[in-house]
Request: fold
Amino acid sequence: MKEIEGGVTSPKGFKAAGVFAGIRKKKKDMAMIFSEVPCIAAGTFTTNIVKAAPVKWDMEMVKKSPFVQAVVVNSGVANTCTGATGMGYCRDMAVTAGLNLGIPTEAVLVASTGLIGKQIPIDKIKTGIENLVPILGSSKEDGIMAAEAILTTDTRKKELAVEIELSGKKVIIGGMCKGSGMIHPNMCTMLSFITTDAAISKELLQEALSTDVKETYNMISVDGDTSTNDTVLLLANGLAGNHEITEKNEDYEKFAEALNFVNTYFAKRIAEDGEGATSLFEVKVINALTKEQAMKLSKSIVSSNLTKAAIFGHDLNWGRILCAMGYSGAEFEPDDVDLYFESSGGKIKLIENGIELIYSKEAAEEILSKPEITVIADIKMGNQSSTAWGCDLTYDYVRINAAYGS
Reply:
């Protein structure tokens, strides 16, 4: 596997575009992904009981539609808590895209992100779709335009592409995502769109995505809020020409490994771009008895607002970390825990067997001042581990969200 330049347009047959449709002020706010041939589709979606209309539409289409060929995305308005009208607007988006692309309505997936409770400006969106279709392209720049058009409070675009070899054929997985606030996925406001030219059965494509989401997107937290719009879509058009993956063989393992690389990359980029964040906060729980235990502990630490605030202040308040472990729901022995802080500034052991060690506070503060900080908790119970990602909690997070609706 190797990383290559590009994003959603890197796999064969995929095109994309992004435009300004007038939903937001002066920023590109609509994107489209299109495959020249029909794709099989897999998806994972928010587990929030309050689900956006596009989530409901996509859940139905991914499950029942024989194929998918396009995705239409708008930013600025989430189309959530909008009743029958909002659902009707999802169909309107799909109908408009289908007519302009010459594909069935049911072959169009839709996604929205932004403010909850407002109806989307459907006339602007229809015009946006009509403007997107003629400029669809397969270049790297076309992918960038799409990646930029789906952002809300994000400070940067997020895209990636990797190349692997399956049954002697070059296969590419590419993608783009957005996410900065309301980030505490549980499925899997975050959106991720992944494309591949691999030939793989729908059942195995869905299994690969559903399995991987648990250890990637579901292991990040910016603010503890599970969005109403969380969506991960994976489209495969088979144009790479590899032997179709229909069983869990070596090719399936290679594909799953590459998919994990892409999803892990996106999960970390979302976490580090948390609203107002100044650092990526990584938590590794090692030597756990079970994977589930390690996941509970690491996610609890990375989600703790007190710990995140301490990271922002370069504060050595490791007691907050043990506290977060204690209410995680996972059983462990506090008196056996060793705790480390690590970054490009070095590595330091703060506690051993639950007791604070003598260490240089200046050295620890230097470690905590770096843009990527890792906490390692060794609970000495087995050989399982898990990693979670978040960010520090800053004054700017409050500023951004205090004014988001206005």
